[in-house]
Specification:
Layout lengths: L4 E2 L7 E7 L4 E6 L7 H8 L5 E7 L5 H9 L2 E8 L2 H13 L6 E5 L6 H7 L6 E6 L4 E2 L9 H7 E2 L3 H12 E12 L3 H9 L2 E10 L8 E8 L6 E2 L3 E2 L10 H7 L8
Parallel strand pairs: 4-5, 4-7, 5-6, 7-10, 8-9, 11-13, 11-14
Antiparallel strand pairs: 1-2, 2-3, 10-12, 11-12
Helix pairs in contact: 1-2, 6-7
Length: 261
C-alpha cells in the first residue's frame, strides 16, 4: 500500500508511505532512489536478540530496525545514519509507528574513527545486536545512482566494509550478534572482515528460486566466540518459476514470523 505525498522533510522529493509486515508498519520513504524492501525486512526479521539494545548501522529510513522492534517488544534501538534526509525520515518513521520510547536516530558516520562516533552518541560495547545493510556497489561499479543520497546508500569506497565491521565490533556487547545482509558476490570481503573479529560465523544464502545461484547472503557473527564458520543451505525467495513467494518468505513479509536460522 502506498500513498504519494510531498513533505518539507525531504526537499523536492515525493514521498510514499508504504505498508510493511501486513500493515503493522507504515514507512515513509522517497518515491525514487534507494527504497527499503525485502532486504530490509529480512535483516530485521533475522535479529535473534530479544532484549537489550539494537544498533542499526547506516539505518536509512529505519525499516530494518522497526521490523526487529515489532518482533521483539523488549528490544530498544539506536539508528545510525549520516544522510540528512534519510535521518529525518527515520525519525519520522520511529514516531509515526509508535516507537519513540524505544528508539532514537543519530547522525553518525559509520566509517568514522571511534572518537567521532562517541561524540555523535554511539556507545562502546553496549549493543546486544548490531545490524547493517551496507552500500553494495563498490565505487565505479554498477549503475550510477541518481542523487547524492541514493549514491551514498548504494556505493562503498574501498575499505569501507572493513570499517563497518570494525565499528560493529567496537559497538557490540560481549557475546553480541553482528548481522549484515549483502549481495552474494560480496561473500569474500565480508568473511575477511568478519573472521578477523567474530566467531560462530553463519552464512545464509538466498536465491531467487530453487536451482538458481544465490543473490543475497545474510552473515552473522558473535563477538568473542571461537566457534567455526557454518555455511547454511540456500533458501529461495520464490517457488518454482512463478512470482509467488515461498511460504517462509511470505510469512516474514506479512510479519507472521521472524526468520528462523
Amino acid at each position: 500500500m502506498s500513498l504519494d505525498q510531498t513533505a518539507n522533510i525531504v526537499k523536492s522529493q515525493t514521498l510514499t508511505r508504504d505498508a510493511f509486515l501486513g500493515g503493522r508498519l507504515t514507512i515513509a520513504q522517497p518515491k525514487t532512489g534507494f527504497r527499503a524492501g525485502l532486504d530490509s525486512v529480512l535483516l530485521g526479521a533475522a535479529v535473534k536478540a530479544e532484549t537489550g539494545q539494537l544498533l542499526d548501522l547506516g539505518a536509512g529510513v529505519g525499516t530494518a530496525t522497526l521490523v526487529a522492534l515489532s518482533h521483539h517488544p523488549a528490544l530498544a534501538a539506536t539508528l545510525a545514519e549520516l544522510e540528512p534526509q534519510a535521518l529525518a525520515l527515520a525519525r519520522e518513521n520511529i514516531a509515526g509507528n509508535g516507537f519513540s520510547g524505544r528508539a532514537e536516530a543519530l547522525a553518525v558516520d559509520v566509517a568514522s574513527p571511534g572518537q567521532a562516533r562517541a561524540a555523535a552518541g554511539l556507545a562502546v560495547e553496549r549493543y546486544a545486536a548490531v545490524i547493517a545493510n551496507p552500500p553494495f556497489f563498490a565505487s565505479g561499479q554498477g549503475t550510477p545512482a541518481r542523487g547524492a543520497g541514493r549514491a551514498a546508500a548504494r556505493q562503498m569506497a574501498p575499505g569501507d566494509l572493513e570499517r563497518w565491521a570494525r565499528t560493529a565490533a567496537a559497538s557490540a556487547a560481549p557475546d553480541g550478534e553482528i548481522l549484515f545482509i549483502l549481495p552474494a558476490e560480496m561473500l569474500g570481503p565480508v568473511l575477511t572482515a568478519f573472521e578477523a573479529r567474530f566467531g560462530a560465523i553463519a552464512v545464509l544464502p538466498f536465491a531467487p528460486r530453487p536451482g538458481a545461484p544465490a543473490s543475497r547472503i545474510l552473515v552473522r557473527g558473535i563477538k568473542g566466540s571461537r566457534a567455526p564458520l557454518n555455511l547454511l543451505a540456500t533458501r529461495s525467495f520464490h517457488s518454482g518459476d512463478g512470482t509467488a513467494f515461498t511460504p517462509e518468505i511470505d510469512a516474514i513479509l506479512r510479519g507472521a514470523a521472524p526468520l528462523h536460522w
